[in-house]
Write a structure and sequence with these properties.
Layout lengths: L6 E5 L3 H11 L3 E8 L2 E7 L7 E5 L9 H13 L4 E6 L2 H10 L3 E8 L5 E6 L5 E6 L2
Length: 136
């Protein structure tokens, strides 16, 4: 089998802040920006990797979600416990410096983890945990 990861989904509750973080801070390309009923789905991805994307979607937009579930999702996003993604880079220190210059919320500075990787963690504007590890 030849299966790849095409897209992952992260919630966003402020499209302009999401674009600012993913495009201007991380350097990702905006691949698609679709509006529907006052909501926006924004597809971003790393330059030079057209087959890998992140879809930044409105939280709880699914019509099957109850009001109580919407409230829970909003509470979890506010705490930063709803969603996250792991990224990787060749130069973690330079990437971390760029993130700090972009005024992001730092959760963890570059650290050697006991499980064998070196990584850092920040939150995007919606509170999603973004962990970035050093490629070996």
């Amino acid at each position: 089998m030849d299966i790849t990861i095409h897209a992952s989904y992260l919630p966003q509750d402020d499209p302009e802040a999401a674009i600012g973080f993913y495009r201007d801070t991380l350097g990702f390309e905006i691949r698609n920006d679709v509006g529907y009923n006052g909501l926006r789905w924004i597809t971003v991805g790393p330059a030079g990797q057209p087959g890998t994307s992140i879809v930044l979607h409105p939280p709880a937009a699914d019509p099957g979600i109850t009001d109580e579930e919407r409230k829970t999702i909003a509470e979890m996003m506010a705490k930063g416990t709803y969603a996250g993604i792991n990224l990787a880079t060749e130069d973690l220190d330079s990437t971390f410096e760029r993130l700090q210059a972009g005024d992001v919320e730092v959760v963890q500075e570059p650290t050697e983890q006991p499980y064998g990787i070196r990584d850092c963690a920040v939150r995007d504007p919606a509170g999603n945990m973004i962990r970035i590890q050093q490629l070996r």
